[in-house]
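Now for a typical sample entry:
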Amino acid sequence: MRRFLVRRFVFLLITLWLVSILVFALSRASGDPRLLYVDPYTTQQDFAAMGRQMGLDRPLAVQYLMWVGRVLRGDLGRSLREARPVREAILERVPTTFQLAGLGWLFIMLSGIPLGVLAAVKRGTTIDYIARMLVTCGQSLPQFWLGIVLILLFSVTLGWLPSGRKEGGPSHYVLPLLVIGPFTAAGTLRLVRAAMIQALDSEYIKFARAKGVRPSIVVWKHALRNAIITPLTYSALILAHLLTGTVLVETVFAWPGLGRLAIIAVNQNDFPLLTGIVLFFATIFLVINFVVDIVYAYVDPRIRYM
């Protein structure tokens, strides 16, 4: 198991290194970085001094190493729009996004997994057909459209719920969660149902039933544990997606998170801020995938001895 985890960790580092090369290449392909900081009062001498300060007079490989060294020390540059370090701007938005992501992930798991198991156990019945109808509806509704409709209905027309902006209590989370939930919960339900049907038709499940094992233990202990691998991967991708900011949801509800910050950085041509956000997003995805690999090793004994 140690060899398996070491190999996965090495892959994580290599992927993160490749992402850093891509981000650095894009920063140089967009033009001279000094052009982001000049103003009408910048002289030619100031422009040249800025290039020496940023290391632009050195070879490209040396510039990359200097940039990586600053990133490893936590220096992601200075935001043009925020007029402060990029690290501060990102860390300020992290708690808001993580709160919404955590609640959204719990809502998805607590609805998608039980409904998927129930649809598999009751396949061919009315419950199964209702579950499949929910999957179709959930995956076909555009998030931006659903968010606007919910705002018009519950905020503008009825006045029951706030339209977002996280300025108060739990009521501000209701509409964003109702938009996040249907699409991702529908995908979880579909994967759990398919994996459970395959597991319930396996020989070891038939043997457990022949031994007289209680149906609840057969379903929740034997079948679900062997069927959870694929849904586990999908749930990790969902969590990574939510933690890196649901761009559409945060934009529709004016939610002060990382997704909306990324949109602001694009609209304002704040390339240092956008670069820092991309690196942060990539790190979150890779770390979550590594954690999932560790969970795999405990869920599936076959992986544990690779």
Notes: The first helix runs from residue 2 to 29. The chain has 14 helices and no strands. Residues 92-304 form a domain with the MetI-like fold fold (CATH 1.10.3720.10).
